[in-house]
Amino acid sequence: MPELAATPPVIAQAAHNAQPYDYRRFVAKIVDVYDSPLIRAYCKARFTIININILQMLSLCLRGKKRILDVGCGFGLFGCYFSSMYPEIEYCGYDLNARRVREANLAAERLGLRNARFNVGDARDLAIDEQYDAIMMVDLLHHIDDTAKSTLLGICASHLAADGRLIIKDVTTRPFFKIAFTWALDVVMTKSFDMWYWNEKRFYQKLDRHFDRIEMYPITDWLPYPHVIYLCENLADRDSDAMEPGATDRR
Ligand SMILES: C[S@@+](CC[C@H](N)C(=O)[O-])C[C@H]1O[C@@H](n2cnc3c(N)ncnc32)[C@H](O)[C@@H]1O
């Protein structure tokens, strides 16, 4: 982990969940370290779209995992959130956009986070050597084409520890009004019409090649995004009959 410049940390202590924590203030502290009003507005929007319920689901997916890779980390918003919440983790983010990566590292430095670092990298050609306990991708996959997406899933699977987890948050293709809204927003944000959305069936087919167990959690809220979280793992004891509720098993 590279040494960061000594800046007075904005978040000196983790927001422990032993007692209810002030989520809004915690998130506001993260958003406030970004200089640009535009980036702050974007970050507020992301914390609304990926709301506290989704973040807490992702937190549970990450439970007990130490070395975490975030592909398509953007401005490092959720990397800063998880690294602040869980000082014991080692968080490494990659994004194609060098400016976003710069802002992410600056945000981590200002927050006093020594357990988060962000690098420039292309998910279509991800060169990583390390093994990770969890790999997450939040709204990345629909930005890369189907062939690259399939390759990336294979790379992720091969860089996970035996008890590692792949955690994907992406959008599915129904209902129509939600995916139409999501598409329009993606076009505006990326200034491109190139989006490759997969529905749950497609994700399942591709993930099934690499993982014993794939859990899918569609998330319904008032916002027009057809969110789904996929939690993928390999079973340490493949002979075990134990299955958790909600899981599909390819045995
Ligand atoms: C919708 S944003 C999500 C960012 C972040 N995960 C979040 O949830 O706030 C998608 C991100 O994927 C990044 N991205 C798009 N194509 C990529 C690629 N080929 N390799 C790495 N990152 C990519 C974009 O730069 C952008 O930051």
Distance between the termini: 39 Å
- Structural domain count: 1
Helix content class = 25-40%
**What would CATH call the architecture?**
3-Layer(aba) Sandwich
Task: Briefly note the CATH topology name.
Answer: Rossmann fold
Per CATH, the class reads Alpha Beta
Strand content: 15-25%
| Count of helical regions | 8
Q: Structural class of the secondary elements?
A: alpha/beta
Low-pLDDT residue intervals, each spanning 5 or more residues: none
Shape: globular
Secondary-structure element string: HHHEHEHEEHEHHEEE
Strand order of the largest sheet: 3-2-1-4-5-7-6-8
Describe what this molecule looks like in 3D.
This protein has helices at 23-32, 37-49, 52-62, 77-85, 98-110, 146-158, 176-190, 200-207; strands at residues 67-71, 90-95, 116-120, 132-138, 160-171, 213-218, 227-233, 247-249. With 251 residues, it is of the alpha/beta class. It has one domain (23-249): Rossmann fold (3-Layer(aba) Sandwich), CATH 3.40.50. An eight-stranded mixed sheet has the order 3-2-1-4-5-7-6-8, with helices on both faces. The model has no long low-confidence stretch (mean pLDDT 91). Bound molecules: S-adenosylmethionine. The site of S-adenosylmethionine has 19 residues, from helix 4.
